[in-house]
Amino acid sequence: MPKKSFSSFCAAFIEENQKAIVLLLLLLTVTGGIVGFRYYKFAKEDPEFCTKCHMMQEAFKTWQLSKHRDFPCQRCHQMSMLEQNKMLISYVVQGAQTTTKQTHGRISPWNSCRDCHLSEVSQGSVTLSNSYGHARHVFMRHIGCSQCHTGSSHNFKPNEQACSGCHKDKVIHGMGMAGLSCLKCHSYGTDTPKMIPFGRCLSCHKDIPTKGTMSSLRCFDCHHPHGKIKPTSPDCLKNCHGSEAKVGQHNLHMTKAKLDCLDCHKAHTWVIGKQEAQKLCQRCHALKDPATFIN
Hints:
Layout: H1 6-16, H2 18-45, H3 57-65, H4 73-76, H5 81-94, H6 103-106, H7 108-111, H8 113-117, H9 132-140, H10 163-166, H11 233-239, H12 250-256, H13 261-264, H14 274-280
């Protein structure tokens, strides 16, 4: 009886066990698909995947304490499957001493900020579309997120020292304001002149009256923290009251008596009524009705 060749044996075996082989291949395909899908989900969506790297333990802890803890690492630290597998194989083969490029860790996250922060997000963060300050810096000035939000790992509070990198001429000085941070006064979520909400100053300067002749003006119309904080009489005349010296008895008092505006007018109230006049006028002459002063 002639010997069967190996190829003939294989052909006969396949023919006799065709159904079993098909089922086995189908089982292997399904199993491989499930394993592959689970690995894909693990690599793409599970933060535990990141902890397999020896460098990630501290970063993982800070992520768990951050406001971004509801989002998996891969949401911001995006990598292709090819890049992930290269890094995994490199780590397995070369061990903990392997050095890999940290593009996914230190560069790509900043490029993905806008994916979330262009619209309202569940955590209530200030969004680019609803924040005048962000719109002005990101869209108008093309400033990257990392230039201002340069905190420690997973701490994205703005670095208030970063402002001075661009605004070199905006130095705060005088009257106890030198130690204040930029964001103490300026609000990114406010579309107002100089990004200062109306009433922000009064949160500190609580003794300033909110009603009066000049209450419609903003504090920084007269006070300039980055320049001259306390205005003088010449500033009043130059900026607003240029013709005031020609009204009533102002010229007499300013030129002859050499009085300044603030010698008579009290800051933030300004109006001089009969009660105030009794104290002021009698310092120099007999009391006269304040109503006759401007005639």
